[in-house]
Amino acid sequence: MHIQSLTAEQSLASLHTSAVGLTSAEAQRRLAEFGPNHVEEVERERLLLSFVREFTHFFAIILWVGAALAFLAEYFDPGQGMVRLGVAIVGVILINAVFSFWQEYRAERAVAALRQLLPQQVKALRGGEIVELLASELVPGDIVLLEEGDFVPADCRLIESFGLRVNTATITGESLPQARNADPQPEMSPLSAKNSVLAGTSVVSGQARAVVYATGMRTEFGKIAHLTQTAGKATSPLQREIARLSRIVAFLATGMGGVFLLIGQALGLPFWENLLFAIGIIVANVPEGLLPTVTLSLAMATQRMAKRNALVRHLPAVETLGSTTVILSDKTGTLTQNRMSVRRLWLGGGFFTQEDIAAQPRLATEHRALFVNAALCHNLKEIHNNGKHEWLGDPMEVALVGMGRQAAGALDGFRRIDEIPFDTDRKRMSVRCETPQGRMLYCKGALETVLEVCDSVQFDGGIAPLDAAAKTRLLAAQDEMAGAGLRVLAFAHGSIDGGLPAEERGLILAGLVGLEDPPRPEVPEAIARCAEAGIRVIMVTGDHPHTAQAIAREIGLMKSDQPVVITGDDLLHLSPAQLHLALDAPEILFARVAAVQKMQLVEALQKKGEIVAVTGDGVNDAPALKAADIGIAMGVAGTDVAKGAADLILLDDNFASIVAAIEEGRAVFDNLRKFLTYILSSNIPEIVPYLAFVLFRIPLPLTIIQILAVDLGTDMLPALALGAEKPDPDVMRRPPRARNERLLSWNLIARAYLFLGVLEAAAAMAVFFFVLDAAGWQYGESLARTAPLYLQATTACLATIVMTQVMNVFLCRHPLKSSLSLSLFGNPLILLGIAAELGLLLFIVYTPAGNWLFGTAPVGVEVWLFAVALAALMGVVEEARKAWLRRSLR
To answer: C-alpha distances in angstroms, 749 versus 259, 583, 651, 678, 890?
Structure first.
C-alpha cells in the first residue's frame, strides 16, 4: 500500500521508525545506505575543456592571427626574427590562458565557498531530542518539524498537523496554498494526497510533524530535477558592459593595425616589415586578461562582504548595491535588536509593570485569563537539551510565554488542541484549548483586529460592554504605550462549544501588553551614513504607527515634527498617482503594512527611477524581495523562502551590515574604473613609437616583443591589485551613481589616453632619444636591429614605460586624492604587483635569456636615473592636476 493510504502509526511502522525519531546510529546507517539528501547537480564543464576555452575566446583568436602572420612572414622573409615574435605571442596566449583559467577557477571556488556559509537547516527528532541538521543528512524514517516559512526538505508523510497550508507551486503549479492534514488519504499519487508534503515546496502557515519517506533523487522533485537545472549562468550588466568594451577596443586595435598597414605601404615600407608594425599595433591594444580580472574582482568583493556579515548569493548584486538609492527596511530585528521584553501592561483600566504583577498576587489572579493566553497562544518549540530548557522561535512570543507562565502558575489540565494561525490579513492568532473550565478560545493580535471579535472588555469593576467609550479608553492606552516605542498586543478569550473558526467572535478583551525591542546601537550611525551617501531609508513595519515613529526618532530616521505616516489601510485607498506623490515626502514611514503590500511600494519607487533594496524575513516578503533591485533576507530570523528569493543575506540580521555591503558595492565599481584607467594608459606609449617610426622615419623605439613584456609586466598583478582596493572613506559621502552611468566614461578616457598615456609616451621617447644622442646618433641614420646601440635604446624605452607604470599604479588609486594621502601599506597587493613587475624588468634587461627573448641589452645607471626622474615628474604633474581639480570642485 502507498504510505498516503496508511494511518500515521502504520506509516511510522512501515518505515521502521517511531514518533520519537531514529537513533543516531540508525540514522548514520541509513545515510550510508540511501546517500545524502540532495538533488544531483548537472555535470559541470570539465576542467580540461574549460582550460581549452581560454585559447578560443575573442582576444585569443586575434593573438593567434598575429602569431600566424609572424610565422608566415618568417617563411617568406627569413632571418628577420619573426619566428621569435610568433613564439612570444604564443607564449602570451599560453600565459594569459593559464592566468585567466586560474582567476576564473578561484572566482568559482570563492562563490561556491560563500554559498556553503549558509546551508539549509532543518529541525528533526533523533531519539526524542530536537536537533538541527543539515537537510542533506536527512534519511527515510526521520521525523521533521515544520513551521511557517520552512522549505520542505524531503518527501514526507504528515503524522501531526496544525493549520498547515503548503505552497506547492514548484511541483504542481498550483498558485494558491494547499491545506494539508495527517488523515489517511485514498489518493494513490503523492502529488495530490492531502497528507503529503513534498521536497521543494514551502510551508505558508501552521505547524506539523512529518516522517520522511523519500530523499534525494527519489523525491518527486528529484524526478523532475532536470527541469530546474537548465537555467543558464547569469551575467551582470557590468560584465556585459566589460565584454562590450573589450570588443570595441579589440575591433579598434584591429582597425588601427589595418590602417597602419596601408600607411606603411603608401610610404613604401617593405611589406613584411610593414606587417610587423601592424601586428604590433594590434598586440599593443588587445586588453588581455580583462574579463577574468573583472570576474575575480567581483568574487573578491563578495568575500569581503561575507566578512562584514553580508552573504552575496548572485554576483550581479555586487554592482547593483553600489547604485542603491532607497532601502525599504523592516523594523523588528533589522533596526532593532529583536530581543523583546514586556515593559507595560494595561489591565482593568490601569497600567502596570511585570514587577507590579509579581508584587501583587491579586492582579495575577484577577487577570489570569490573559496570562494563560500568553502562555498558550504561540508557535514556539520547547527544547530540553542536556538539562537545559529553552524556547525556540519568535523573540516576542518567547517574552510573552515567559511572562505568562510566571504569572499564571501551573497549567495542569490545559491542553492546546487546535489553532487559527496568524496571517497578515487578520493580524491575529487564536488557539483552542481544553481547560479545567471547559473549552476556551484564546486570541492575541493587533488591537484593531482583536476588537473586531470582541463584544466586552474586562475592567476592575468586572466585565463591561465594549461600547464606544470603552474603545476610546483602549485606543488611548494603546497610543500612550506605542508613543513610548512599545509594540502593543491585545489579548482576548471566550468559552467555546463548536468548532473553529466560527467561534472567533463574542470574546472578552482581557488587556494590552506592551513589549520593548530596543534599537541596535550601531543603527543610528548607519542611518546617518545613508543620509550622507544620498540613500533614503524608509521604515516599513507591521507595528503601530506610534511605535514606528518612536523608534524612527530614536535612530535618527525622523527629525521633523510632521513626518508622513501611511498605514496599510491608507495604502489600500491610495491611487498609484497619489502614492507616487506621497513618496516625494522627505520623511515618510509605513506602519501596519502587510508584507504583500511591500511589492506595491517597491514598484512605485522603481517607477520613480529609484534603485530599491528591500529587507524581509517572512514567506510573504518573497514577492517584494524578488521584485526589488536588491532583495535582502535575514540570515538568522529569515525563513528559507525569503532567503531563496533574496540576492543578499544578512548573516547577523543587522541594518548596519546593509550599509557596509553598499559601501563594498560602490568600491567595486570604483576599483574597476581604477583598473581600466591603469591598463588603458599604457596603450599610448605602446602606440606612439609606431606612429613616430612611420611618420618621422626613426628607428622603431619599441618592438612587439617588448610591448608584450610591458603588458605582462604592468597589466596583470598591479591591475588586479587595483581591483582589490579597500573602499575609500569618502565613498559613502557622495550620492549613488546613476543607473545609466557608463563604466568607461569620457573623463576616464581623457585621463587615460590624453593625459597619463601622453605623459608616459613623452617620457619613454625622451629616454629613447637620450640613449641615442649620448652615443652620437644623427637623425636619418639607420640602425641594424641587432646593433648594441639600438638594443640599448629600445631597452631604455621599455624600462621607462615600466617605471612610469609603477608611478601610475599609485596615481590610479584615486581619481582626485593625492597619492601621498593614501597609506602605502593599505593594499599589500600593490607592493607585491610592483615587486613582480620590477623583477620581470630586471630579468629582461640583465639576463642573457631575457636579452635573447625580448631583444634587449643592459643599460647604465644614468638611464635608470633619467627614467625614474621622468616618472617622478609625471607624478608631480598628475598630482598638480588633481590639486587643481580639488580646488575647482570646492
So the answer is: 22, 38, 40, 11, 24
> What is the per-residue pLDDT across 567-617, written as a single tens digit (0 to 9) for each?
988 999 999 999 999 999 999 999 988 767 888 999 999 999 899 999 987
Question: Angle 41-42-47 (CA atoms, 0-180°, nearest 5)?
Answer: 105
The range of the structural domain enclosing residue 53 comes to: 1-233
CB 510 within 8 A of CB 368: no
Q: Give one DSSP letter per residue of 358-399, joined into a string.
A: HH-HHHHHHTHHHHHHHHHS---EEEEETTEEEEES-HHHHH
CA distance 621 to 334: 14
Q: What global pTM score does this model have?
A: 0.70
Cell triple for residue 693? 617610426
d(C-alpha 745, C-alpha 37), whole Å: 50
444-482: b or e for each residue (b if 16 or more CB lie within 10 Å)? Answer: bbbbbebbebbebbbbeeeebebeeebbeebeebbebbb
Q: At what angle do helices 788-811 and 683-696 cross, to 10 degrees?
A: 140
Residue 462 forms part of a structural domain: yes
Percent of the chain with pLDDT over 90: 40
How many angstroms from the chain centroid is the CA of residue 758? Answer: 40
By residue count, the chain amounts to 890
Based on its alpha-carbon atoms, the radius of gyration of the chain, rounded to whole angstroms, reads 35
> Which three three-digit cell numbers place residue 849?
635569456
Report CA torsion sign: 162, 167, 170, 173: positive
B/e letters for 853-872, b = 16+ CB within 10 Å, e = fewer, are bbbbbebeeebbebbbebbe
Cα end-to-end span (Å), the chain: 81
Rounded CA-CA distance 850/758 in Å is 28
- The CATH number of the domain where 731 resides is what? 1.20.1110.10
Task: List, as one string, the DSSP characters of 110-122.
Answer: HHHHHHTTS--EE
Is pLDDT larger for residue 174 or for residue 744? 744
Task: Pull the grid cell for residue 749.
Answer: 578616457
User: Does residue 814 share a domain with residue 748?
Assistant: yes
Q: Is the pLDDT of residue 64 over 90?
A: no
Catalytic one among 142, 150, 155, 330? 330
Going by the DSSP 8-state scheme, the letter that residue 131 receives in this structure is E
CB 364, CB 357: distance < 8 Å: yes
HSE toward the beta carbon, residue 266, CA cutoff 13 A: 8
Tell me if 97 sits within 8 A of 63, measured CB to CB.
no
Q: Are 642 and 710 in contact (CB under 8 A)?
A: no
Tens-digit pLDDT profile for residues 116-127? 544 578 999 998
Per the annotation, the verdict on 142 as an active-site residue is no
Q: Both 15 and 112 in a single domain?
A: yes
| Among 440, 433, 587, 406, CA closest to 508 | 440
The answer to whether residue 605 is domain-embedded is yes
The residue among 610, 755, 668 whose CA lies nearest residue 242 is 668
Q: What's the mean pLDDT in 462-482? A: 94
Strands 438-445 and 462-465: unpaired
- Distance between CA atoms of residues 252 and 409, nearest Å: 83
Pairing of strands 588-591, 564-567: parallel
| 645 and 710 co-located in one domain | no
Query: Considering the domain boundaries, does residue 503 fall inside one?
Result: no
Q: CA 831, CA 817: separation in Å to the nearest integer?
A: 19
Q: Domain check: are 543 and 491 in the same one?
A: no
Q: Would residue 506 count as lying in a domain?
A: no
Sign for the CA dihedral angle at 13, 18, 21, 23 comes to: negative
User: Can you give the pLDDT at residue 709?
Assistant: 77
